[in-house]
Specification:
With 296 residues, this protein is α/β, with parallel strands linked by helices. The chain has eight helices and twelve strands. The radius of gyration is 20 Å and the shape is globular.
């Protein structure tokens, strides 16, 4: 998808400067480097050239609305937290507008109800794409994913990508979960691959799994963090990753890796058996929980 010169992001800067400005550019702030600061229009109040990022530190503020100072620090994480707070609280087109958005996402993702979209916190970005929150095990917002269209092997595809530049390598990703319906004291945890599988499982089992079960989703089969291992301590864990065909067997191998990491930590670990060898050859590669639940 071609971009105009203005929508291309930062105008000229070094690679190191790019890294510090990446969270802001990723979410649509058009920045121009002017000496020690990069300047652009504020996403929050709309004032032109009032959004400022110090290129040496990545700290930001708006000189009109005060954004970046009221949240304590004005770093990239504070930026995405404020961005998500404003986006999730906005009545896009009024109450009917946000309902239409949620219904559209539910239909696109083959979910039963817009209620699941609302419960898992999916909300519209300013450009009409989707924002998907990611949380720490303490239920604090640690990441905001954006659904964007990118080229993959010569084809345009939609991908959920995390905001870059707000965490060091190894801590980039966060959990997807139904906020307000997650409790670390619960003894059973179902772990899905990707938020859409998690949402599909949650809405089918909502009220059936009982008060002692959490349903969460990791961003992908190759992503697992140490804090998620600790979350599973003493718990009964069920892994529900995708049925990926050889040669990768990504979902199956991912479940085996997580099971090994949880050995001696979780009370028990089980994972979905798609078939002999870890996959179902009668289904397309990548067949998942959502496919199974929506299959007629």
């Amino acid at each position: 998808m071609p971009t105009s010169p203005r929508s291309s992001g930062i105008r000229p800067a070094s690679t190191s400067v790019h890294d510090r400005l990446r969270p802001y550019v990723f979410h649509g702030v058009q920045l121009s480097v002017r000496g020690t600061h990069a300047v652009g229009d504020c996403l929050f109040c709309g004032r032109e050239d009032k959004f400022s990022v110090e290129v040496a530190t990545g700290l930001w503020r708006c000189w009109t609305c005060g954004g970046g100072t009221e949240r304590g620090g004005g770093n990239g994480l504070g930026f995405v937290r404020l961005l998500y707070e404003r986006a999730s609280g906005a009545n896009v087109g009024g109450p009917n507008g946000i309902k239409a958005f949620q219904a559209g996402v539910a239909a696109d993702r083959r979910l039963l109800s817009p209620a699941a979209v609302a419960a898992w916190g999916i909300c519209p970005a300013a450009d009409g794409t989707w924002l998907v929150p990611g949380y720490g095990v303490d239920s604090k917002l640690d990441q905001v994913y954006r659904r964007i269209r990118i080229q993959d092997k010569g084809e345009w595809v939609w991908r959920l990508l995390p905001t870059p530049g707000i965490w060091p390598e190894g801590k980039v990703h966060a959990l997807h979960l139904p906020i307000g319906n997650f409790d670390l004291a619960r003894s059973n945890i179902f772990v899905c691959e990707g938020p859409w599988d998690g949402m599909a499982l949650w809405e089918v089992w909502n009220g059936v799994t009982g008060p002692n079960t959490n349903i969460v989703a990791v961003p992908g089969c190759n992503v697992w963090r140490d804090e998620w291992t600790e979350m599973c301590r003493g718990k009964t864990i069920t892994l529900m990753y995708d049925s990926d065909h050889p040669p990768t067997l990504g979902g199956y191998n991912g479940m085996k890796r997580v099971a090994k990491r949880l050995s001696g930590i979780a009370a028990s670990v089980r994972y979905i058996n798609w078939g002999d060898g870890g996959f179902d050859p009668s289904k397309p590669s990548g067949y998942d929980v959502r496919d199974f639940l929506t299959e007629e």
